[in-house]
């Protein structure tokens, strides 16, 4: 096949408009396929970081909308293997105008003094950390969020509650950096708790457990859930990674959804490429006969015709993977509305897999018309006039 690359390349340029449209169609389809594979890889194939592996999340067994008593914190801390337990309460609320998606970001009420221990990946300058921990109305924001909204240390932030009927006046005392989850706003749980009416105080959404060792996770999770099995507020304890994936369950079977779309895209590419090759071969039956008179065997003719389809598909795949990489780079910098997209990437194995898919589609789509043309007798091929 590669011995006749110059002939193959000239054949692809025979009808420039059709080739360009086919390459563009394959490129767009492959870019979508690559993006879906990158999202699937981010959700399901990436392992937990070393910091994540040491953490468990405790929530109400019924749902995240149900709360847990704050008193559980001290009881969980006494379980062997538990190094620390911290409150992590989703606040929600509204910052400025809720209609502007730029103003949406995660807001959590936390045990500020335990953040450096349980979340070591959140790096803050020592003076900023001290100010955040010591001041009741202080808050810390991620550097990506600070860059997006122009936050600086000392700025005032007003959050109007929706889940909690309070208005919080916060002062930014720290800006943390992290490889992921750097669009959060963290503030003191005690400030929120004291602002609520007495009937709603001392309840939290989730607890975060820091373990001595990741190997203790199954035992600690079982011990915590067994401790509150017959209480009015039963718990469900899971790893931080499992907790994150549980949010995807709200969308249904995401794996099947991504898989079905990917299959539909590949089938569409196969049809587009097959139609192109069928038209190209049909127009060149007479040329195939001439090639055979010049000494080309059936195998060589087959290789040339299939090589043309392979070149078109791989060219479309390369352009598509370039588009995928550009889209992923843009999404990494975009605001995280549903999930943190800063980990969205296109590793080399993913790009290679997509190019392999494009190549296979090119070969499969051209096999039948190329095989039919290669097996046609010379005299029958030369008789074709259209």
Sequence-ordered SSE layout with sheet pairings:
Elements: H1 5-12, H2 16-45, H3 50-53, E1 55-60, E2 68-69, H4 72-77, E3 82-90, E4 106-110, H5 115-118, H6 126-134, E5 138-142, H7 143-149, E6 156-160, E7 167-176, E8 184-188, H8 189-195, E9 203-204, E10 206-211, H9 217-227, E11 235-239, H10 240-248, H11 254-283, H12 285-293, H13 298-333, H14 348-375, H15 378-383
Parallel strand pairs: 4-8, 5-7
Antiparallel strand pairs: 1-10, 1-11, 2-9, 3-4, 3-10, 5-8, 6-7
Helix pairs in contact: 1-13, 2-11, 2-13, 2-14, 11-14, 13-14
Low-confidence stretches: none
First-last Cα distance: 27 Å
**What is the overall number of helices?**
15
How many strand segments? 11
Radius of gyration over all CA atoms, rounded: 30 Å
Strand content: 15-25%
Mean pLDDT, all residues: 85
Pattern of helices and strands: HHHEEHEEHHEHEEEHEEHEHHHHHH
Q: Which short descriptors sum up this protein?
A:
alpha+beta; 11 strands; 15 helices; nine-stranded mixed β-sheet; elongated; 386 residues; two-stranded antiparallel ribbon
Q: What does this entry look like structurally?
A:
The chain has 386 residues and is an alpha+beta fold. It has two domains: 177 residues, no CATH class; 172 residues, no CATH class. It has 15 helices and eleven strands. The strands form two sheets. It has a nine-stranded mixed beta sheet. Strands 2-9 form a two-stranded antiparallel ribbon. It is elongated.
